[in-house]
Amino acid sequence: MSDVSLSLLIFGLTYLLIITERIHKTIIALFGAALMIALGIVTQEEAFYSHEFGVDYNVIFLLIGMMVIVNIVRETGLFEVLAIWTAQRSDAQPFRMLLLLAVITALLSATLDNVTTVLLMAPVTLSITKRLDLNPVTFLLVEAMASNIGGTATLVGDPPNMMIASKAGFGYLDFLVRLGPIAVVILTVFLGSLWWLAGRSMRVDSSLRDTVLTLRIEDAVQDRGMLRRCVWLLIIVNTAFCAHGWLRLEPATIALLGASLFMLFGHRRGSSGTAEELSYLTEVEWKTIFFFIGLFILIGALVKVGVIRRAAELLVAYTSDNPAGTTIAILWGSALLSAVVDNIPYVAAMNPLIVDLARSRHPSLIDQPALLHQPDILPLWWALALGACLGGNATIIGASANVIIVDLARKAGYGISFWQFARIGVPVTIGSMLLSSLYLWWLFL
């Protein structure tokens, strides 16, 4: 059996077992990754050290750093403060809270990134729904999808956008002007559809509502000194995230620096010392971390044997002489593939294909920026960005934010199955692609 067939078989069986949920997804992902290495499809060196085929440590350490920060901030009562503020601003009406949380999540994702955003927003959501005796699952699912929609709007909102910007020579304003409007439209339609998806069934006991409306924010603060220190540290960390390009620091480095500062200065004064400081590390969601490690190796094997690139080539090959057809094929094909595999290696495979297509269409152009910004090439970049970012809403493993939300819900005692996520995610993704198709047709075609 060839490496291509073997890697597809292992990945397919792994994916199938994740869907059935008979065995925990972390165990399955690690076993599949170990098989890829043991059978020589990827070497151990490639799995652990290759930027192209191995573990994306930028994502891993971003997650670890932010989980440590969230664990420390939780002790200050800040999430309860934000939960009470959100409830009171929405008059403790469940559907209004859902809309407000979704909008805040989308805005934060456009400013930071979707992973950081859901790590910050999920504890607030769990706190507010607990106070009102509401099931948080719908709230968390909506936030995961809002984070992916919001992240689509800007260069820094989602890693695929950063990769496309680097290859095509786009700036921050290019993404904001081109993708910002359609992200707002998609988010608006998404929020409007929530009434039919969940809003009509949302009810809260009037006594609980009255209790929440009379809560004093000051009473939720557990340690004022610790809260002040943590708020200042959060401002510093989030400012660094926004300016990471200027600082020339990867988000993972900022998250680790931030986590170290929080452990040094954010913990309670007079605490028991090293043991308590290290407890923040033991509370990291290590099952989630190892799931991502296994998933990265599995997808890296598909990249190495050429499966991802071949899929990308097929998207372009059959429509290469038809600019409109190529644009729509890349949009929908990117969404489909991003729902199944990580969008980062997929975009890495697609970028050079679009460059090659540009050269074949305009062989006389030597200037690279002019070549990649030709009127028939520009829509391909935006189709790739929209499909890769929004396609992740379809499944649990389609985006990092989805995996994190599901694991945080499970930790709080609320299971979210693959199909439960897909029942909302697939229609949202199809609707997003339809709106994106109309937008690209109106804008370029």
TrEMBL record:
Q: What is its main location?
A: membrane
Record-annotated Citrate transporter-like domain positions: 15-387
Protein's membrane topology:
Multi-pass membrane protein
* Subcellular localization: Cell membrane
Segments traversing the membrane: 26-43, 98-122, 175-198, 230-247, 289-307, 328-348, 380-409, 421-444
* InterPro entries the record matches: Arsenical_pump_ArsB, Cit_transptr-like_dom, Diverse_Ion_Transporter
Keyword vocabulary terms for this entry: Cell membrane, Membrane, Transmembrane, Transmembrane helix, Transport
- Indicate yes or no for the key word Membrane: yes
The source's superkingdom equals: Bacteria
Keyword Transferase in record: no
Q: Which GO terms describe its cellular component?
A: plasma membrane
Q: Name one GO molecular function term.
A: arsenite transmembrane transporter activity
Q: Please give the CDD domains that the UniProt record associates with this protein.
A: P_permease
What family, per the record?
Answer: Belongs to the CitM (TC 2.A.11) transporter family.
PANTHER family per record: P PROTEIN
Identify this protein by name. Answer: 46 kDa membrane protein
What is the organism field in this record? Nitrospira japonica
